[in-house]
Amino acid sequence: MKFNYDKETDSLYINFVDIQGVDSYEIAPDYIVDIDAKGNLIGIEVLNLKNKMDFEQLIFNQIPIKDIRFLNQSAIS
User: Fold this and answer.
1) Is 73 within a domain?
2) Is 77 a domain residue?
3) CB hemisphere CA count around 35 (13 angstroms)
4) 8-56, pLDDT tens digit by residue?
5) By C-alpha distance, which of 26, 9, 1, 77 is closest to 35?
């Protein structure tokens, strides 16, 4: 799973799997989902993110992660 934030557009894309999407649907204002050829959810885009969350307080609780990587950084284990 990958989280990609774009400062220019203030949007967050959560990519569940690295496969090609074939269609997108707006499921609510500012929430767009991408699906693959079989209709499976492969990603979610959230627009206007700063209006929806506080970036100074990101809390992860019980996520089974082997490592965390930030762009241009080594893995944190």
Assistant:
1) no
2) no
3) 9
4) 999 999 999 989 899 999 999 999 999 999 999 999 999 999 888 877 7
5) 26
Instruction: Determine, yes or no, domain membership for 16.
Output: yes
Q: Which long-range contacts (CB under 8 A, 24 or more apart) does 53-57 make?
A: none
Please check whether residue 19 is in contact with residue 32, taking contact to mean a CB–CB distance below 8 angstroms: no
Number of domains in the chain: 1
Structure tokens that stand for 43 in this block: 């990603």
CA angle 26–65–67, rounded 5-degree value: 110
DSSP type of residue 62: S
Residue that the structure tokens 């894309």 belong to: 13
In whole angstroms, what is the distance from residue 28 CA to residue 67 CA? 32
Q: If we measure between CA atoms, which residue out of 18, 26, 60, 62 comes closest to residue 44?
A: 26
